[in-house]
């Protein structure tokens, strides 16, 4: 993708999918501001890029003062903001009955309110220039349910609808809003979350997850970055309100059919 001349703000960019998106945007020619609450990790990631086209901006997406500063820093650095990537997110587990109310609120605050605040701050800048691309990183969990993950699933489902609402309301202003929905991706966050399952199964949990995925594997963070670069580029100029599933085909699988396909059989074999 050609992102020459584009200026982007990427939240949650210190590691995992966010860092992969940042690297891809730089490789494709964009100037970027990377935001994260993890100051040391953020600084380390920015230094690793060894580029004068990237700066760090420590901040909390749930704090509107921080968010406004992130957007202002982006405009100061690049003269504008063409692209907003809402990637910051958390995924603590807990069923509806078991999850602490404060944790429920925190997950929704980071995963849904955070993107809302970033969009609230960035959209006026995009309106001034008559164009912009918002890319919200949701999840397969936004359209499917994960056991004992109601807050995460609700936040990602809400993010998909929020993104579509922005596409509807601000399309006439030249602003596009789309979703990239990753399936199982080998980030530190998911690897840590899978440790218990791996121990219980006495095998790599990612191998088990992959058994029902048509491509038979988990994704790497860089595989999310390509979809984001496309949505940031002018090659996607007539795409808005869409959800791009980057999940190896997981969303198309019926749970009953998966048990058959897992062993290489078809119905009636």
Label this structure with key terms.
269 residues, alpha/beta, 7-stranded parallel β-sheet, 14% strand, globular
Explain this structure.
With 269 residues, this protein is an alpha/beta fold. The protein has helices spanning 16-27, 39-49, 64-78, 101-129, 150-170, 188-193, 195-201, 205-210, 222-232, 255-261, and strands at 7-11, 31-36, 54-58, 83-86, 132-137, 175-182, 243-246. It has a seven-stranded parallel β-sheet with strand order 3-2-1-4-5-6-7, sandwiched between helices. Helix 5 (150-170) links the parallel strand 5 (132-137) and strand 6. Helix 1 crosses helix 9. The termini are far apart. The model has no long low-confidence stretch (mean pLDDT 93).
In short:
By secondary structure, the protein is an alpha/beta fold.
* Rg, alpha carbons: 19 Å
Number of helices: 10
Task: Outline the low-pLDDT stretches.
Answer: none
The secondary-structure class comes to alpha/beta
The largest beta-sheet arranges its strands as 3-2-1-4-5-6-7
Sheet with the most strands, sense and barrel status:
7 strands, parallel
| Fraction of residues in helix | 40-55%
General shape: globular
Please provide the ordered H/E string of secondary-structure elements: EHEHEHEHEHEHHHHEH
Q: What fraction strand?
A: 5-15%
Distance between the termini: 45 Å
What's the helix and strand layout?
Layout: E1 7-11, H1 16-27, E2 31-36, H2 39-49, E3 54-58, H3 64-78, E4 83-86, H4 101-129, E5 132-137, H5 150-170, E6 175-182, H6 188-193, H7 195-201, H8 205-210, H9 222-232, E7 243-246, H10 255-261
Parallel strand pairs: 1-2, 1-4, 2-3, 4-5, 5-6, 6-7
Helix pairs in contact: 1-9, 3-4, 4-5
